[in-house]
Amino acid sequence: MTDALVFEELQWLTDVIVARMKLYFNQESEVKDINQIPPPVINDNSGAYSRFIKVNNLGTEDRILLILSWVPVLKPQLLDCFLVKNSDTGQRFVEFGCVEGRSDGAIVPTLGTALFILAGEDIKAKMLLAERFTSHPIISSWLSYHEDNNTLSFSNWILSPPHELLDLFLFERPFIPRFSNNFPAKAISTTRSWDELVLDEKTMGQVNEIKMWVKYGERIREEWQLSSRIKPGFRALFYGPSGCGKTFTVTLLGKEIGKQVFCIDLSMVVSKYIGETEKNLAKVFELAENKDWILFFDEADALFGKRTNVKDSHDRYANQEVAYLLQRVEDYKGLIILSTNLKSNIDEAFARRFQIMVRFNMPNAQERERLWISSFSPLCELEETINIKQIAEDYELAGGSIINVVQYCSISAMSREENIIRKADLLEGIRNEFSKVGKTIRE
């Protein structure tokens, strides 16, 4: 539910803008100064918008700028008054500061718009406010150059607060960016539990080390005064055959520690065009900055593979991409996990920067038996001739392949309108999985 204060602040801004325009054009106004219009009272039991204002200790001027930045979304018509033209020039009043920012002709407010609303024609007051906003640790990050504006004047910087704040303020939910060319990563999660993950003792122990870093990593930096020696962030490499639980483990980590996991789509990141790979990576890291997300690079060989000997300009640029990636990975303050089938495929420069390398082995016979038992639906029955223990001993399959076989058997049973898993279907499913890697089964 949207914080009621959002709408109260919007009405307050409306009243302030009306008063400012009347004062500017020397029209009769109910107030002589916009400061006579009090801001809404913030209650202790209010929502996310109210908490954001209190936690960041935002003053009256800051609150005006904050709600003004959301006007293009909440009430774009409120800015129409700034479209009025100067009768002397036939152009819009430059002091109003708005710029055209959308294809539908709508305008977006700039820092200059906020300065006009707050200070009118008082140049000294505008300069003081500009210094405040551009040096503010939070507000300054909302200011950006307009792409079509050639001037470097700070008054033309548009107000563009992060998208995640809109989701938080309006819908009281965390911001989850959509998969697109501008953000080539997908949010992944799981509803399953650790009980369903079958790993050997050593691998599980290393996974627990990652959990410990999440819990204590920042504390040792701050409480034990190690921040100058230990960089923030944690980098892990998961390696081993496909289907052995690497991705499943990442989603379980995200679920347990309450962090969103994003799997980077390397097909949309890696480009044959010089400089494009860095740009695509920048989109991910810039949006992930300070979000505490888990970034998961699956099949990372394409991006983190061994560098080539420099033979031509393309090799040189390829190595520059690796250098750029090294820097971004090291600077990320959250958890980054890379996944590959072969550890030897990863460039040594990256390997040195991992705090931990976790090997995911093919499950042994005992582990495969557990996987088989836990994978079948409790609503199905196994044909009497099926000996799960023997199946587990005879056929070396990864957990992902076992799931594929179970799916094949279950669909076959349902197509017969029964719940009995037949041995013939089970063996056919295993045969299908073996054929993918050029193997055959013995009956």
TrEMBL record:
CDD domains: RecA-like_protease
Region forming the signal peptide: none
Top-level taxon in the UniProt lineage: Bacteria
Keywords attached to this entry: ATP-binding, Nucleotide-binding
Pfam families: AAA
Domain AAA+ ATPase, chain residue ranges per copy: 232-363
InterPro entries per UniProt: 26S_Proteasome_ATPase, AAA+_ATPase, ATPase_AAA_core, P-loop_NTPase
GO MF, any single term: ATP hydrolysis activity
Protein family membership: Belongs to the AAA ATPase family.
Protein name per the record: ATP-binding protein
Species in which this protein is naturally found: Prevotella koreensis
